Amino acid sequence: MIMKTVIKPAKSTSWSMRFADFKEITKVRLAVSVVFSSLAGYLLGADEISFVSLLLLAFGGYCMVGASNAYNQIIEKDLDALMKRTMNRPIPSGRMSVNQGMTIAVVLTVLGVVSLYFLNPKTAMFGAISIFLYTSVYTPLKTMTPLSVFVGAFPGAIPFMLGWVAASNEFGIEPGTLFMIQFFWQFPHFWALAWMLDDDYKKGGFKMLPTGKKDKGTALQIIMYTIWMMVISVVPVLGITGRLQLSIPAAVIIFIMGGVMLFFAFRLYEKRDNVSARKLMLASVTYITFMQVVYVLDKYIPALF
User: Fold this and answer.
1) Most buried pick, 17, 19, 231, 241, via CB within 10 A?
2) Contact present, 188 and 74 (Cβ < 8 Å)
């Protein structure tokens, strides 16, 4: 009886630790935010909502993001061990072997591609392109040039667009616009994060800030990309983006939310400190979430706006 009492909690702890490592290597919070963007894009592109399609998109999307993150952590395991932020990840900490990580990455890749293929081949193709760009282009460039952020913005912008393609099996001006919104958003979001983590990134040899420094040049670029994001986010109000429409009240709300981000971008330009960068980063997360919510509500409950 005593032995059973001791062994069961040990097994339970072991499985909980493995699950925690799985969440860590797939970056569960990032993956969930990507799935949210994909589902928002699906709702915008769908004439009729299929819950089976939503489940396939959510599952496939998580698998694709999780696979990308797993490959990334395998490639960067030695660099991750040098940085305080990442040294406790499963592989550099020794809790997970490279082979185990690769198994997770490959299985998630297969499951993700197959799941998205059931929606339509275009969705699976864009999902596969996202993994390739993130793993094979963005990841190795991070130690070579700050332009890696520009390259990484392409796979990062795919999810919002991916949902529309999943719903419509078409790629045109509508998913292209969704792509551009999330593309421009990533620069102020990521550079604010990179500003906060600059010292740690330098330990790993990563070159993430556009000027290489936490200076006015970097802050100015953040401001410029924020302005572009604000503009492209309300372009659908002009009626030039096909089936992707936006009412005037919804456009005003989204533009004001973008203005809040722009305010924090100017604060970062003025103060150039980590506190201002953190506020901008949090504002950017709030913006992308509520912007997508406003788009969806504007389509399905136009009376709200």
Assistant:
1) 241
2) no
